Amino acid sequence: MMKGLFFYPLQLALSDMKMESTFSLRDSILLLVFIAVIAIVLVIINIFSKNTSGRKSGSGSGSGSKNSFFLGFSIGKMIRGIGLNHEQKKMLDFVFKTDGVTDVEKSLTTPALLDRHFRRAYRAIEQSKSLNAEKQHKLSVLFSTRNLLENSAIGTIASTRELKENTTLTLSTVREKFNVIVVSIKGENISVETPKTILGSQIKVSKGTRLSVVFFTKSNKGFTFNTRVTGYSSMHGVPIMLLSHSNQLRFLSQRRFYRRHTSIACFLYVVYIEGKGKKQRLVVDKRRISGYIADISVGGCSIKTTAPVNVGARLKIEFEQGEDKVAALGQVLRINRKGVNSIIHIRFLKVTQKSMNLINAFVYDYLTE
Fold this sequence. Notes:
Layout: H1 2-59, H2 65-78, H3 86-98, H4 104-109, H5 111-126, H6 132-150, E1 168-172, E2 177-184, E3 189-193, E4 210-216, E5 222-235, E6 238-244, E7 250-252, E8 260-274, E9 281-297, E10 300-305, E11 314-321, E12 324-338, E13 341-351, H7 353-363
Antiparallel strand pairs: 1-2, 1-4, 2-3, 3-6, 4-5, 5-6, 5-7, 8-9, 8-11, 9-10, 10-13, 11-12, 12-13
Helix pairs in contact: 1-2, 2-3, 3-5, 3-6, 5-6, 6-7
């Protein structure tokens, strides 16, 4: 009996020990897996940090490796949907690191800051010791990135409650159009100055009238929205028209390429097509036509000249930018004649990569200090 009493608790103890042994083995395996995962993560972080440091020392940019990780994440979040390819995203990262940017959102939504970053990146590429072909390629990627950002909706507003006072709104009804100034956006309505005729008399638009509105921000981004007249009031003795707020603003697409007004002396050469089929070739007339470029982008230009030119004509355009000569093949789209002068609007058909980079550098004013 004492034996039974002795062996019974002993059997329980052995069973308990077996269970504890099984649990410890499973726990050990989980622990080893956890340690392995941590080790792999640390190795990946170490490799990433070294690669980032290498890029930093190679490009001469001013951001640390840790900062670069968060910078890349921020850029990806902000530029989603713009259409930048992998090479352009890398260029944007280079632009920001070159100027030591830490507040990505502020830079992307502030045109003056963004322009400064791209200007400095342009100088960094220009002053690099890369081969000319590689340098020109990098500059072309830089400007293609800049053009996409120029026409993006980054930094746009989502509601009329974000409008600034003194913003000019262009209001359109079915029959007429007029401009008004925003006085206040507080409360349930947009308060604008009551529209007036050319003679200064007030235009009374009926309450409830639906209006289409267009306006531009200080960064020259255009928007449109629909509203209606909710009533009239006065503010500081000034008659006010009240418009309903809107949360459905639509971004207006701009020109594909940024354009700059200027006055640059240029020469034009008429280009003819000789031969047929595969034997066709372009022949440039040796006689040159003088003119002045009135505005230009990498997509085309407008030229003021007194020479007779026909719509559809192909022209070789030449002008100088500093010590460099810019050349492009273009076609006349339309002509505006004013007395002896003509403004011919040209679409570029063929531009060398170097000439395109020089045009972009001029358009964005990166050629001057």
